[in-house]
Amino acid sequence: MLLLVLIHPAEARIGETQERCRERYGKPVGINQQGRRVTALYLSDGFVVNAVFWDDRAFSITYQKLGPDNEPVALTESQMVRLLDINFGKHQWQGSTASGGWFTEDLRLGGHIDAATHTYTVMDMGISYQVSKTLNGALAQQPNPPATSTSAE
Length: 153
Known about the structure:
With 153 residues, this protein is α+β, with helices and mostly antiparallel strands. The protein has four helices and ten strands, in the order H-H-E-E-E-E-E-H-E-E-E-E-H-E. A hairpin with a 2-residue loop joins strand 2 and strand 3.
């Protein structure tokens, strides 16, 4: 039960819309939009949540848990695996904290740890690859693509 309380606020799911994330976390504290890609930053119940959307569907979510002093603290292995299960359902995860994260055998779904910043990013690598490919193509055609960065309204 304690584990559920610790990660309840961080239960966004890959594939959710911006509106669903707003319902879950509240108003984003920052939004950055570049064409079809939108990044929204939320502060919710002791977590910083950075969700990246493509065509209004989350494909990458970074979680950072904050301690009582609002400084980042590390998630436990069980919390990280639980976030994978919340986002993708039950899978046979391969990896560990020491190896930098967990992934499915086909490497399509997974989570990556950044120990320096105490962040944990879960993502659908298939969608991430398509987004990267699309953005790289667009950047090649536009030497200075417009990027917008705004505070949330």
